[in-house]
Each structure stands twice: as structure tokens, then as C-alpha cells.
Amino acid sequence: MGRRVGTPQLREAGWLHPETRDTRPLLLVRLEEVIQPPGWQLIVDVCAEPQEQIRTPYPDEPSALDALEQIYAFHRDHGSWRIHRPVPFD
Question: What are phi and psi of 68, to 5 degrees?
Fold first, then answer.
């Protein structure tokens, strides 16, 4: 099954897991390439209570990647990141 035209494309996802035995992630971040209107979107899901989702648009890939790296760096003291970068398809 192929992707639908205009569907945002996942370019990176990261799960922040605590250093404790708790297996539920603290945060989930996703970087998506948006087709219409063109740009990028960073989505942060706070998995702890209260649950929250923050969506921030970016005009270009470098600024979105910079914001994503800042999130990774800021939260490194709270656990370890599992990062997934899917291979884009055309």
C-alpha cells in the first residue's frame, strides 16, 4: 500500500525512556515533512500525566532539525533516547 498524496512523511521519531524500570516512554517526538503547504512539523507528545501534544511548524528542514536536536540535548539527563530514521521512499 503506497502513501496518499499530501500525507505528511515521517522523517525521524525519538522515544525518551527513563533510566528506571518503567517501560513507558516519557516523550515521543516526531519530525514530519509536510507536503501542503510545504514545510516541516515537529510533534512532541508528553506521555506522562497530564498527557499533552505540542505541534510546531518550521519553514525548512535545517531549522526543524536544529529544534529537534535541542529537544534531544535538553532531555538527555532524564533518560535515554531511541531514535528511528525511516528510509524515505519516492
Answer: -65, -45
- What value does the mean pLDDT take over residues 81-85? 94
| Amino acid, res. 3 | R
Domain that holds residue 43: 13-84
When comparing pLDDT for 68 and 4, which is higher? 68
> pTM of the full predicted structure?
0.84
Sheet holding 27-34, edge to edge: 52-58, 39-46, 27-34, 9-17, 80-84
Q: What is the three-class DSSP state of 57? A: strand
CB-based contact 88:12 (threshold 8 Å): no
Whether residue 7 is contained in a domain is answered as no
Q: Over the stretch 27-46, which tens digit does the pLDDT of each residue have? A: 999 999 998 889 999 999 99
Whether omega for the bond prior to residue 25 falls within 30 degrees of 0, making it cis, is no
Q: Which residues contact 65 (CB under 8 A, 6 or more apart)?
A: 31
